[in-house]
Amino acid sequence: MESNIVFSELKPGKLKSVKEGIFKEVQAKIHLRGNNWRPMKYNQHQSMVYMVARLDREYADLVRVFHEIKARDPEFKPGTLFDFGSGTGSVMWAANTVFKNSIWEHFLVDNSVEMHDLAKLLLHGGDPDGKPHFKNVYFRYNMPETLRYQNDLVVSAFSLFELSSKSERLEICEQMWKRTKPGGYMVLMELASKTAHTVMMEARDHILK
Ligand SMILES: C[S@@+](CC[C@H](N)C(=O)[O-])C[C@H]1O[C@@H](n2cnc3c(N)ncnc32)[C@H](O)[C@@H]1O
């Protein structure tokens, strides 16, 4: 596809074919984005690439979502945060940006050692010996088996889609829901695609049934 097209200068027949070409290209990209699932294990390199490519955008999306909660429920002041598939820790950063000086405990679950290492480095301002930006941050590799207490804010951002099966996703959602305190919020987020929308609807229907 040419990149410097001046649409107003195109004859009607040419304009129609250019529009059809753009439409096909967009459809192909949407299809690829929704159907290229493969198991993903984040090693050190992939974690760094993920951070560079997606951290700022995900942080921005999460801040927006938490602001929506705050606008609708100004009294909501989460004390504890639970994040499944925590990766670089973007949920923790975004939640603390919006709910300032409110969260006193953070529970981050991710099965990648390297993602945890990166999240810890960011937490300490890039210096392993530096002071952490937030207090009481606990890193875990698995969803805890026992349920000792519930959390005010329970989140999974861009991680459910990476699980290998519907039953695993629904099991994780159920666990997350059990960990959500009455009056708290459970937030599920995925990148916009038709498949991710299906994943979200499955999770919502399962929890609400
Ligand atoms: C796309 S990343 C999202 C990361 C994070 N929410 C962020 O914004 O940086 C997905 C994360 O889910 C983690 N993950 C995938 N499967 C998991 C599982 N079964 N248990 C725990 N974490 C998992 C990956 O290691 C990865 O860090």
Describe, in plain words, how this protein is organized in 3D:
By secondary structure, the protein is an alpha/beta fold. The protein folds into two domains: 9-38; 44-208, Vaccinia Virus protein VP39 (Rossmann fold, 3-Layer(aba) Sandwich). It has helices at 12-35, 44-72, 90-98, 113-123, 166-178, 194-208, and strands at 80-84, 105-109, 137-140, 151-157, 180-189. It has a five-stranded parallel sheet with strand order 3-2-1-4-5. Helix 4 links the parallel strand 2 and strand 3. Helix 5 (166-178) crosses helix 6 (194-208). The longest helix has 29 residues, at 44-72. It is globular and about 65 Å long. The chain starts with 11 loop residues before the first helix and ends with a helix. The structure holds S-adenosylmethionine (SAM).
Offer a few descriptive terms.
single chain; 209 residues; alpha/beta; Rossmann fold; 2 domains; 5-stranded parallel sheet; 6 helices; 5 strands; globular; binds S-adenosylmethionine; methyltransferase activity; structural constituent of ribosome; Methyltransferase-like protein 17, mitochondrial; Ribosomal_Rsm22-like; mitochondrion
Task: Give a topology summary.
Blueprint: H1 12-35, H2 44-72, E1 80-84, H3 90-98, E2 105-109, H4 113-123, E3 137-140, E4 151-157, H5 166-178, E5 180-189, H6 194-208
Parallel strand pairs: 1-2, 1-4, 2-3, 4-5
Helix pairs in contact: 2-3, 5-6
Residues 42, 58, 85-88, 90-91, 109-112, 115, 157-159, 162-163 line the site of S-adenosylmethionine.
Pfam families: Rsm22
InterPro entries: Mt_RNA_Methyltransferase, Ribosomal_Rsm22-like, SAM-dependent_MTases_sf
GO molecular function, one term: structural constituent of ribosome
